[in-house]
């Protein structure tokens, strides 16, 4: 069954998401970019809150490291800081770079320590053909396709149906969790579910006026939960 990820900014939004059936409480600051990072204290507060208030064992937390350049030491330090909160998954954006391997080599050691890493690729960007294989080889738990430019476009504006089927098949062939997100709303569900993602992520599509920087709209979360 496809799970529901809701991005939240604080404990109050985490409570709304939990009550209305989110499986993954994702910590992200929409004011700070595509994968804006929240303060460590806020992440800790939400992780502790979800740990106490989850209604079933399959409700998890994730947090983003921020819109960081692909610098191995910088990313590794932030990953470890966030992992120390005991968040279930740490999400790392793969922004444009000529050298992903140095980051992957460093992160491989962290993954082997038991930290569950999620690689976030962006639909607007071009990546080496072998990157998905390299991400798996580095021990990542999962891979997510998102959008970097929050302008209403989705991954479907950049990938044909055939390309998405191939992408999804490659991720699943490595037995990684597979997530889809990026300006999605309830009207996209039927098309998105065709790619059998492990989870589908929402922020703007479950916010007031479909604006990701505004507060969550409980009715929209409830509608998507019902549709799933």
TrEMBL record:
InterPro entries: 4HFCP_synth (IPR007565)
Catalytic function, reaction form: 2 D-glyceraldehyde 3-phosphate = 4-(hydroxymethyl)-2-furancarboxaldehyde phosphate + phosphate + 2 H2O
Active site (UniProt): 28 (schiff-base intermediate with substrate), 91 (proton acceptor)
Claim: Repressor is one of the keywords in the record: no
EC code(s) of this entry: 4.2.3.153
Keyword Lyase applies: yes
Domain of life: Bacteria
UniProt keywords, alphabetically: Lyase, Schiff base
A Pfam match: 4HFCP_synth
Molecular function GO labels: lyase activity
Function: Catalyzes the formation of 4-(hydroxymethyl)-2-furancarboxaldehyde phosphate (4-HFC-P) from two molecules of glyceraldehyde-3-P (GA-3-P).
Name this protein carries in UniProt: (5-formylfuran-3-yl)methyl phosphate synthase
Source organism (scientific name): Methylotenera mobilis (strain JLW8 / ATCC BAA-1282 / DSM 17540)
